[in-house]
């Protein structure tokens, strides 16, 4: 693998948790710590061969015995020595066969950069409509038989059914969630972390996608 790196508008990291820092005026700033992990180019897709331009990024290293043979062959073809187990495509017009096997650079994500963060939200288990959708609920006084229930969900003879996507009790969380226009407070590539102002979706040790903000 070449020691040179390439710039991309996206990289993947691990959510290490939250903490706080203080600025030069002593103001308290809550931040999320994103652990930097190796992101390597495992495939280059071009308009001529695949019909579109994109770079496949491999990340999240595991033990070699946990990789299947097809993944090992894919990494060997890209001259990647790390045992990466997750792969994602990033569409870009700047594609080159020379990028294969190279690691992504984090230099473009300096302090003050606006980013969009995508991850799978925390799972909350089975939840009712009050917790899941902030329903108001019924009277809490004695004699009421309607406290935290859904209420009527039916219709008349027309259409005579419950509409699709009706807000009902069910599995809460575990959804792909994006928070836009967060800012990077500090990028410390030497120690392997990035500080993002505020909170980001997902539990600790979950994979997060960091992208340059689309609306800034």
Q: State the helicity in percent bands.
A: under 10%
| Spatial sequence of strands, sheet with the most strands | 2-3-12-11-8-13
Are there runs of 5+ residues with pLDDT below 50, and where?
Answer: none
Strand content: 35-45%
Main sheet properties? 6 strands, antiparallel, barrel
Mean pLDDT: 93
The CATH superfamily of the largest domain is known as Translation factors
Q: What's the CATH topology name of the largest domain? A: Elongation Factor Tu (Ef-tu), domain 3
Radius of gyration: 23 Å
Please state the structural category.
mainly beta
**Number of E-type strands:** 13
What's the CATH C level of the largest domain? Mainly Beta
Helix run count: 2
CATH architecture of the largest domain: Beta Barrel
Distance N to C terminus: 34 Å
Order of helices and strands: EEEEEHEEEEHEEEE
Q: Tell me, what's the shape? A: globular
Count of discrete domains: 2
Structure, described:
The protein is mostly beta strands and 216 residues long. The protein folds into two domains: 5-122 and 176-212, Elongation Factor Tu (Ef-tu), domain 3 (Beta Barrel), CATH 2.40.30; 127-173, no CATH class. The protein is 6% helix and 41% strand. The protein is built from two helices and 13 strands; from the N terminus they run βββββαββββαββββ. A hairpin with a 5-residue loop joins strand 2 and strand 3 (28-36). The longest helix has 9 residues, at 69-77. It is globular, with a radius of gyration of 23 Å. The mean pLDDT is 93.
């Amino acid at each position: 693998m070449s020691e040179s790196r390439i710039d991309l508008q996206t990289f993947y990291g691990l959510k290490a948790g939250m903490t706080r820092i203080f600025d030069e005026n002593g103001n308290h700033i809550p931040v999320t710590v994103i652990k930097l992990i190796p992101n390597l180019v495992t495939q280059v897709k071009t308009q001529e061969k695949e019909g579109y331009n994109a770079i496949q990024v491999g990340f999240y290293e595991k033990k070699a015995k946990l990789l299947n043979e097809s993944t090992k062959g894919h990494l060997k073809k890209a001259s990647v020595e790390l045992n990466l187990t997750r792969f994602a495509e990033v569409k870009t017009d700047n594609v080159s066969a020379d990028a294969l096997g190279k690691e992504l650079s984090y230099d473009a994500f300096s302090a003050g950069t606006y980013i969009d963060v995508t991850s799978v939200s925390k799972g909350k288990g089975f939840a009712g409509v009050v917790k899941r959708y902030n329903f108001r609920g019924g009277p809490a006084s004695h004699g009421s038989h309607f406290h935290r229930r859904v209420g009527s969900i039916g219709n008349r003879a027309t259409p005579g059914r419950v509409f699709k996507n009706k807000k009902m009790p069910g599995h809460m969380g575990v959804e792909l969630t994006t928070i836009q226009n967060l800012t990077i407070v500090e990028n410390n590539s030497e120690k392997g972390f990035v500080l993002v102002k505020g909170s980001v979706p997902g539990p600790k040790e979950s994979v997060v996608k960091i992208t340059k903000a689309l609306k800034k």
